[in-house]
Amino acid sequence: MARKQNSLTYEVFKGIWDENPVMVSLLGLCPTLAVTNSALNGLTMSMATGFVLLCSSLMISLLRNLIPSQVRIASYIVIIATFVTVVDRYLAAFDPVQSKALGPYIPLIVVNCVILGRQEAFSAKNNPGRSLLDSFGMTLGFTAVLVILGGIREILGAGAIFNIPIMWDGFNPWMIMILPPGAFFTLGILIALVNLINERRAGR
Amino acid sequence: MNLLLIFIGAALVNNFVLSYFLGICPFVGVSKRISSAVSMGMAVTFVMTITAIVTWLIYHLILVPFQVEILEYVSFILVIASLVQLVEMFIRKISKPLYETLGIYLPLITTNCAILGLALFSVLREYDFIESLIFGLGAGAGFTLALVIMAGIRQDLELANVPKVFQGAGITMIVAGCLALAFMGFAGI
Question: Cα(A189)–Cα(B3) distance, rounded to whole angstroms?
């Protein structure tokens, strides 16, 4: 990568490819696999996760000098859990259909390793501006993966995208794609594709 | 009979790892050797069972009477984090060898989504005390089973000729997909 390692644009863009939370660091796999049976679910999930990530990064980088290091993980988790409660209540009030579709996976954002990992690795050591940029980039990367994965599974498994049918009339949906095994297969193939592209780029 | 159904449901039919996708991180990270998979599974089952008991007590004896169910997530995760600490200290005190086997995996359990997922599911399904306990045991058994099967397959995979781009996470996902497919067969029970 030609971009300077510590420039501000790099903080944002590294989240999308170089340090993509799902594809490269293999963090946050539970929500990635569980909710991506449609593109819309993937999008809602990543919006919710992104909100929690941005808010808690801001909060933690502001408080980073006040939190004693012995109790930092517990403090981070309490901050994250608070913002997750906010998102959960918001969704239940304004989008009950999606809230029901995602079920317990919204509260499970609390233990999403992407969020805790970024706090530990980044926000705890950097100023609020930089942490926000980093979280924003990570959110973009996470969103991209969830929407692509959800999109592929929805197109093949239900013949539609964002609930709009796009396949031809005689198309027989592959049920397996919206069931659990489909999630594993699609993610495995996507990871292999990312590896292939990286290899090509490095070889050039 | 109902209890047996809950146990089998949590362990096989709706396996936490392969059909709810909970606890995927240790599933991918730890399941490289059968022996460490067994230790990890034991540690998780242990914490799960205690979590099921304690979160049930907290939810029904504290949160519901005082009408502060909104604090559910904050209190559950704090309970789990402190439980893991407690269990760690307790094991270190009573059994040195067990501590050394489980030692490194214990702190990891706090951020294992299967534990919080278990607490949330038992609230959602309105299980009573005994049912939650059995649900915790079953989920733990299912987690251990998935982890051990996966570790066995991966030990064999080390000798297999896997295409380069699939090596590592890629092939793990494909294998997990096949396992999930196999576990779907239990839905008939």
Answer: 39
Residue of B nearest to A29 (CA): B24
Contact B162, B171 (CB under 8 A): yes
Say whether A29 and B24 touch across the interface (CB within 8 A).
yes
Instruction: Please tell me if residue B108 touches chain A, with a CB cutoff of 8 Å.
Output: no
Residue the block writes with tokens 């270190």:
B92
- pLDDT one digit per residue (tens) for chain A, 204 residues: 444 566 777 777 777 777 787 777 777 777 888 888 888 888 999 999 999 999 999 999 998 888 887 778 788 888 999 999 999 999 999 988 888 888 888 888 888 878 888 888 888 888 888 889 889 999 998 999 899 988 888 888 888 777 777 777 777 777 788 888 888 888 889 888 888 888 888 876
**CA nearest to A139, candidates A49, A26, A79:** A49
Q: What ipTM was predicted for this assembly? A: 0.81
Here the tokens at position A49 are 């996760």
Question: Do the beta carbons of residue B23 and residue B143 sit within 8 Å?
Answer: yes
Half-sphere exposure of A26 (CA within 13 A, CB side): 16
